[in-house]
Amino acid sequence: MDWQPPAATPRTWKAKLPSPNASVTNIELSGQASPADDVVVDVRGVNYGVDSRPIFKGLDLKVRRGQITAIMGPSGTGKTTLLRLITAQSTPSQGQVVVFGQDVAGLGSSGIYAMRKRMGMLFQNGALLTDMDVFENVAFPVREHTDLPEPLIRRLVLTKLQAVGLRGAADLMPAELSGGMARRVALARAIVMDPEILIYDEPFVGLDPISLGMILRLIQKMNEALGITSIVVSHDVQELSTIAHESYLLSGGRVVASGSPQELAQSHEEVVHQFMTGAAEGPVPFHYPASDYHAQLMAEEP
Amino acid sequence: MSDRGGYITEGVRRFGAVAIFLVRMLIQCVPALGRPGLIVLQIYNAGARSLIIIMMSGFLVGAVLALEGYTLLARFGSSEALGTAAALGLLRELGPVVTALLFAGRAGTALTSEIGLMRATDQLTAMEIMAVNPLRYVAAPRFMGGVIAMPLLAGVFNLIGLFGAQLVGVWQMGVDKGSFWSQMQDAVDFRDVWEGIAKSLAFGFTCSLIAVHEGYNTEPTAAGVGLATTRTVVASSVLILLLDYILTAAFQS
Lengths: 302, 253
Prior knowledge:
heterodimer; A: alpha/beta; Rossmann fold; globular; B: mainly alpha
């Protein structure tokens, strides 16, 4: 594998221009002033909590068509929760999540399913269906949503498996795959219906450097070759900075910084600096809140 | 007092959750009927794979029933009625109840842990994101497969049980073979058979609903899957015996 992660050079945005009508609708629905903005996911002032524990307090972020948007943040800041909101698995208690110009909270179950057909998602552990082989896993969404003839399904699935380099593994069961392979199969499954948005939940966690490089290259390839809008949730700063067009750093339930990875790296804000450099102490404390250390050690009773 | 209130509230809440789940799943059973292959697979999983334990238990229960029945009936000099006693005991009571208890332990736990692991490994969420309703694809076929498999298993249990009873009664205890079968034919009518079928349908419905519901709502951890499996066995067993009493009383009145 002689492939190297690409250098961190800013690239031009190569998305298809929306038709005039479509852009007018978008402007009306998403309330944008400039026609150049083509926002596919718009999170506006979202408040959300689980069991009275607040996770988001006034969260705002936008994902633009054809770009790779990175969502970073320390563990436990609700990155995965944000994905649940975008995919309409949860609804915010306040604020709006607008996807493809529609407020997710206002969609019925058929509307939600219609929206999800335009999305693909790569789960952290792949989430392959364990009772089917690799081929059937990738064919699953096609069989469920279309009545394409078998030879066509076969070609479609093999094409996608070839794209992730696992055409030869078509007959293996998910239990026989390594972590990196399972994630690549899941990626083939996520793109088999040609989604407009591809969501990656922690795609780099627990991978060896070779698998990590492969996934990184695939994310970029999907974006460049297919023009798929990508949302990558991760805390791997180095990896993300090589591919992301735009980054958001979440902390304390809101966006603390946004911009290109280079802008974030040069930020002087304390939280951003701590996160980008991986310092143990900073606004995000090393110690979980506790009573006085000395007093607790010296106390007779626990 | 407040503790008791808490238990009652929790009980009502869980009952309500199961009822809502049932309605949502029943709605999805209609489109799921369009995929008979999935249902047949689940009948195979829940039914055919439980056959060995059902057949072994049926044989032993029938044999014990004949042994006990013979001792009791011989006291009153009516040991020829052994066929009737065994048939009625198996058809109306032991067949459906023991089959259901074994089903809860064998197929119910398998269903719960399978669906629970699918929950824990995000497979159900992945289906949701792929715009495939897991209630339709995973829950409904398993539920229907269980409801269909239970009366079939109870039928097998009864057949093998009668064979076991005959083996012990006729060959070991020396009851006349002719009177064993003819008295059975005279005394058993369709009402008795129907009582057994109705019971095993009710038990199949209850066991499958509990197993699928517990699996579907498992807390997505290793401990959560274990707890859900235990709850399936406990809740199914208690409900089977409670329902059995209610149905027996209803059929007698």
